What we know:
Structural class: alpha+beta
Helix content: 25-40%
Number of helices: 2
Shape: globular
Strand order of the largest sheet: 4-1-3-2-5
Radius of gyration: 12 Å
Number of strands: 5
Strand content: 35-45%
Amino acid sequence: MGCVRLIVTGKVQGVGFRAYVCAEARHAGIRGYVRNRANGCVEVLACGPEPALEVLIGRIAKGPAGARVTGMERESVDEGRMPEGFLVRYDET
């Protein structure tokens, strides 16, 4: 089990990116959240089995139709207090 925080840049707001990430994460059994950040990027916090995380990260890198991912920062994080499922958060940071 691993946990990662991703900061995704590019054309990732206003194109259904959060809904896409949420659906992909739920399908993979990943816990965590996705949210927009005030600077135009998207933050993803994801916890789950390493193979499922790698698949999710690959799908995030491609994004949905209409999105264009130009960069992704990745850092390992502690699990801490994670939600039971995967959520779209609406509180921008």
